[in-house]
């Protein structure tokens, strides 16, 4: 088994999103994907737009996976993202717990998240 095959799909999804490999990320998302906690996140493209906005709102973003878990049709990732607010030079960071449910075809179809901010509120700088 390769390293990629042994990783939960959710870790591969976030690696793709972080690295800008959006076509690969889309392949992990069901066409009917939606978030149950982010009302604007109603499709794979909406998720990618949100990730892109986060990346534009900070310079030198770094994402660290803390934990991933998979059981049945659910996968969870706990991660932290940090960068610099280009307008103030301050460090902005958030920690997230993202929960995904898979459809019968193995792609992610539903998403829930919980965010905690360290320092400035990054999402004040993002217009979604």
Write up what this structure looks like.
By secondary structure, the chain is an alpha+beta fold. It has one domain: Nuclear Transport Factor 2, Chain: A. It is built from four helices and five strands. Strands 1-5-4-3-2 form a five-stranded mixed β-sheet. A hairpin with a 5-residue loop joins β4 (91-102) and β5. The longest helix has 13 residues, at 44-56. It is globular.
Tell me briefly what this model is.
By secondary structure, this protein is α+β, with helices and mostly antiparallel strands. Helix content is 27%, strand content 43%.
Secondary-structure map:
Blueprint (H helix, E strand, L loop, with lengths): L2 H4 L2 H11 L2 H6 L1 E7 L8 H13 L2 E13 L2 E11 L6 E12 L5 E12 L9
Parallel strand pairs: 1-5
Antiparallel strand pairs: 2-3, 3-4, 4-5
Helical stretch count? 4
Mean pLDDT over the full residue set:
87
State the low-pLDDT regions, or none: none
Q: What fold name goes in the CATH topology slot?
A: Nuclear Transport Factor 2, Chain: A
Overall 3D form: globular
List keywords for this structure.
five-stranded mixed sheet, single chain, globular, 5 strands, 4 helices, Nuclear Transport Factor 2, Chain: A, alpha+beta, 128 residues
């Amino acid at each position: 088994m390769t390293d990629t095959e042994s990783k939960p799909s959710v870790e591969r999804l976030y690696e793709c999103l972080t690295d800008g490999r959006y076509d690969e990320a889309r392949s992990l998302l069901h066409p009917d994907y939606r978030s149950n906690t982010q009302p604007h996140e109603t499709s794979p493209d909406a998720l990618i737009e949100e990730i892109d906005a986060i990346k534009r709102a900070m310079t030198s973003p770094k994402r660290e996976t803390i934990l991933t878990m998979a059981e049945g049709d659910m996968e969870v990732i706990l991660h932290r993202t940090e960068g610099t607010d280009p307008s103030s030079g301050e460090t902005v960071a958030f920690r997230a717990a993202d929960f995904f449910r898979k459809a019968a075809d193995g792609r992610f179809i539903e998403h829930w998240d919980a965010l905690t901010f360290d320092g400035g509120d990054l999402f004040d700088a993002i217009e979604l």
